[in-house]
């Protein structure tokens, strides 16, 4: 009789790699916000990597690099162990919330 | 000609890719709830595989929309008009900035559209990774469902907001 379940995964998988991906997304999001608000505040302007797109090409590329590096580092450190879900999710949501605030144009007027 | 190359690119970006990603995001969120199994139960392989591919397709479509928007549509939008041009209709950013009534569509709408979709794409990718890694257990694990649902939910809200702004911009200053 064919087995309709997908039961090849080990019974207990450490959650580290999962939460590394989640927190890395938060860090990447925060990096996006940081590059945006740093640009608006005149602190740091990411260079244009593709002329027709302008500074957005630099800001977004750098944010993606931060995201992928953070993911790689966190995954290497956490992949074989369990990590606190609640704390990691809270940090992720805080970082995403901050990123949305920093990319919100009315906030730039306050700088 | 009914549609120009520029308007076709805009439609591909806005309707097919971004719209498709939003539909898939909502479908994934609905599926997460509709296909939820009791804690620890064995999930039928067809359901877990379908959900995994749904999240992967969502992230892929969202990245296609973000990259296409940034590197194909946005340059056409922000092109600088030559001096002395009679009509700004072919230069959406300049057209929006030319009137106090529409300036906010660039200063707020397009500025949000430039950056927020990247955040949504990263979150959707994390959701797809979680779904792929835990494809056999996710639907029967409340904690994993919460994580995935949170990522997809935030991503969906961001994409919906950006899509609304895109509709406004395209209504007032379309790429002909």
How do the helices and strands line up, and which of them pair or pack?
The complex is a heterodimer of chains A (111) and B (176).
Chain A: H1 16-41, H2 55-78, H3 85-102, H4 105-108
Helix pairs in contact in A: 1-2, 1-3
Chain B: H1 5-34, H2 45-77, H3 92-97, H4 103-133, H5 142-172
Helix pairs in contact in B: 1-2, 1-5, 2-4, 4-5
Describe it for me?
The complex is a heterodimer of chains A (111) and B (176). Chain A is built from four helices and no strands. Chain A is mostly helical. Chain A has one domain. In chain A, α1 packs antiparallel against α2 and α1 packs parallel to α3. The longest helix of chain A has 26 residues. The N terminus of chain A is likely disordered. Chain B has one domain. In chain B, α1 packs antiparallel against α2, α1 runs antiparallel to α5 and α2 packs antiparallel against α4. Chain B starts with a helix and ends with a helix. At the A-B interface, α1, α2 and α3 of A face α2, α4 and α5 of B.
Key descriptive features of the protein:
heterodimer, A: 111 residues, mainly alpha, 65% helix, elongated, B: 176 residues, 5 helices
Concise account of the structure shown:
The complex is a heterodimer of chains A (111) and B (176). By secondary structure, chain A is mainly α.
